[in-house]
């Protein structure tokens, strides 16, 4: 249903200045999107790792009291599993350490295609629950306030936190809104029946699959009334997990949601579904096949291959602009007609 923009990838790691002189940027992806004062803004997940480390050592960065620290491990240390480039694991305790850390970086554009990425971070890890990084921002505008929910990662688990801003300069942190293990939260741009609404994705351990749930809140901080909305399938492109993508879009036929799904081989694709305006927990139409799958070279190859993953979509007229992460490394743009997409879902 989507057409890739010929300028893709719009943002690559080489275009972004690292936050420290001893770091290198290895990923610019999974950006939240907003329209603000005539500009398109993206809050990019910027992944960085230490460079020029001693041979035979792995330096895992983390934040403590606002300062970067390092967990240093020798590659030949039998106490650690160092085979995965993304993390190391203590074989005795099970503790994980990431080999990179992420923060949020602001990018601006007048045309939604050519972006200028700011040189300094917009949001850095600041609490113990964010020690390993802040990731995958979604932006929801409600009555002049831009609410930014993001994933916070630490030894305490993967949680979802909330911040807000009116001008993308001054930031108010509102703390954890969904405790571990929970991510892929998308907040609706207006209340439904007097309550705020969000989709979220719990990550059960021994029992259960990775499914999309809905919750409501009186204040965007305290969430309850949890119900399942969309479940992973037994086979096919949704058999591994499903989770929220871009914040829902209000149409004349209901709420349109673009979500992500992965199969059991960790190939990520995007799907779409519609819910009634006053019943965001009831699906009335759903794509039987993905609306976007990894096909372009920058989606098939990268830090984590075979991935398209969205955190932000914008509507201008009848054009739906989808900003998405490709292979956990770059940012792409795909476009479609909003009305045509809704008609196809309903047909």
Protein architecture, described:
4% of the residues lie in helices and 51% in strands. By secondary structure, the protein is mainly beta. The chain has a single domain (3-346), classed as 5 Propeller (Tachylectin-2, Chain A). Strands 19, 20, 21, 22 and 23 form a five-stranded antiparallel β-sheet that branches. Strand 25 and strand 26 (330-337) form a beta hairpin. The longest helix is centred in the C-terminal third of the chain and has 9 residues, at 338-346. The model has no long low-confidence stretch (mean pLDDT 97).
Find the count of extended strands (DSSP E, 2+ residues).
26
In the predicted model, the low-confidence regions spanning at least 5 consecutive residues are none
Structural class: mainly beta
pLDDT averaged over residues: 97
Biggest beta sheet summary:
5 strands, antiparallel
Count of DSSP helices? 2
Q: What gross morphology would you assign? A: globular
Domains (count): 1
In what range is the share of β-strand residues? over 45%
Quick structural overview:
This protein has 347 residues and is mainly β.
Topology, element by element:
Elements (H helix, E strand, L loop, with lengths): L2 E2 L18 E14 L2 E12 L6 E8 L2 E8 L5 E2 L5 E4 L5 E3 L2 E9 L6 E2 L15 E10 L2 E10 L2 E9 L6 E7 L3 E6 L8 E7 L9 E6 L6 E7 L10 E3 L5 E3 L2 E9 L5 E8 L9 E2 L10 H4 L7 E9 L2 E8 L3 E8 H9 L1
Antiparallel strand pairs: 1-26, 2-3, 3-9, 4-5, 6-7, 7-8, 9-10, 11-12, 12-13, 13-14, 15-16, 16-17, 17-18, 19-21, 20-21, 21-22, 22-23, 24-25, 25-26
């Amino acid at each position: 249903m989507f057409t890739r923009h010929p300028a893709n990838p719009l943002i690559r790691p080489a275009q972004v200045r690292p936050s420290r002189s001893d770091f290198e940027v290895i990923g610019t992806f999974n950006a939240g999107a907003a329209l603000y004062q005539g500009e398109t803004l993206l809050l990019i997940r910027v992944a960085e790792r230490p460079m020029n480390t001693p041979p035979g050592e792995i330096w895992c960065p983390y934040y403590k009291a606002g300062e970067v620290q390092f967990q240093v491990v020798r590659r030949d240390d039998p106490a650690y599993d160092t085979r995965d480039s993304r993390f190391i694991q203590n074989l005795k305790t099970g503790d994980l350490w990431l080999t990179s850390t992420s923060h949020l970086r602001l990018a601006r554009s007048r045309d939604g295609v050519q972006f200028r990425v700011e040189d300094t971070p917009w949001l850095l890890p600041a609490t113990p629950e964010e020690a390993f990084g802040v990731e995958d921002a979604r932006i929801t505008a409600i009555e002049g306030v831009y609410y930014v929910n993001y994933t916070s990662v630490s030894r305490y688990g993967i949680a979802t936190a909330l911040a807000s801003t009116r001008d993308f300069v001054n930031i108010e942190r509102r703390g954890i809104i969904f405790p571990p293990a929970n991510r892929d939260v998308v907040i609706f741009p207006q209340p439904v029946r007097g309550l705020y609404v969000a989709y979220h994705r719990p990550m059960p351990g021994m029992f259960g699959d990775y499914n999309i749930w809905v919750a409501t809140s009186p204040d965007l901080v305290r969430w309850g009334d949890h119900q399942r909305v969309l479940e992973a399938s037994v086979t096919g492109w949704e058999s591994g997990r499903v989770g929220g993508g871009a914040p829902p879009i209000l149409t004349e036929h209901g709420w349109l949601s673009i979500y992500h799904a992965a199969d059991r081989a960790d190939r990520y694709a995007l799907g779409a579904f519609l819910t009634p305006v006053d019943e965001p927990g009831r699906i009335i139409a759903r794509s039987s096949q993905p609306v976007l799958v990894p096909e372009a070279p920058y989606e098939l190859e990268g830090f984590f291959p075979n991935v398209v993953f969205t955190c932000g979509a914008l509507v201008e007229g009848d054009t739906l602009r989808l900003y998405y992460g490709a292979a956990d490394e770059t940012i792409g743009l795909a476009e479609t007609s909003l009305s045509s997409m809704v008609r196809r879902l309903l047909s």
